[in-house]
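INFO batch 0412 | record 1 of 1 | parsing
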Amino acid sequence: MDTITLLQHYWWLVISLLGALLVFLMFVQGGQALLYTIGRTEEERNMLVNSLGRKWEFTFTTLVTFGGAFFASFPLFYSTSFGGAFYVWMAILLCFVIQAVAYEYRRKPGNVFGERTFNAFLLVNGVLGPLLIGTAVGTFFTGAEFTVDRLNLANQGGAAVISQWATPWHGLEAVAEWRNVLLGLSVTLLAMTLACQYFMNNIDDEAIFRRAARRMRTFAVLFVACFVAWLLALVLADGWAVDAAGTVSIEPYKYLHNLVEMPYVAAALLIGVASVLWSVYLGWRGSRRAVWFGGVGTVLTVLSLLLLAGWNDTAYYPSLADMQSSLTIRNSSSSLFTLRTMAWVSLFVPFVAAYIWYAWRAMNRRPITREEIRGDDHQY
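INFO prediction complete | emitting tokens
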């Protein structure tokens, strides 16, 4: 494997890891969606929001880092998807902007819009955020309507636009594919399941604990049903394979073949799924440690699925309008110089991760209680 190929695989691994961490951290969105389901009184809702408020910036920062890393390492995907399917990405961006506004102004003195308005913002972000992101990621496996023509770079008479979207819906057509919607529902239900486990771990209140445990059972069952159906559809579906010459072709059972030919990815997927199921079992029995197994399992599962999409000569963003326009880690990556320079920068990632872990532990040193909410000067 030559240097640039190695770096392309390395950066797809980094992006997949960031995406996996993002899905785990979306328990914040799942918790926001349950604001009125678990919080029955204003005080209880304030406890939930303050518990999530200590973590929401981790999710937002990871989302920005994920997008930035994608832009730097695979710019053709960024220009094709973010430039073409802009209705979807603008909706996602709006969802996260109103979340930031809600946490900033929800309890500020002189709030002219009222607390309920910002609670509504949190609910919108909590439901639509995971649903839209999951549906968008589903197109990594089902494809999207775009074309790529690099010869447009030589166009002297107009704008040198390489990618064109083939429909006027600009990404919204993804909801017409049931597998995309099923993945979106799976991500949303997983976020709510993890949120319940997080509340059980982070809030010291018997009433909230009982409600979170009860809701977790419901969302966990629905999540497992949706995810198993989506995973079966994935391994039985055709995929887009690319040969040494860069020619893309349809390969039956491509993702099943990827699991067989990359046993380490299959092992990570198996361990991840088992860990998530174990977290459900622990949560079912009322354990406060369930969220840690759920988090590890989520990261391993999503990481392995994203590796299935990009490694082993697979087109990670198939084109339904023109098969040969499909994007792979080879034809959409940055130059060798850029990938190598960023690889050196990425060596600082473990230090950043260590800081995040330290900050997380410091904020979780004491669980949220009613007494703390009543006496805390800083509230979200």
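INFO post-check: The beta strands are 146-148, 163-165, 239-242, 248-251.
INFO record closed
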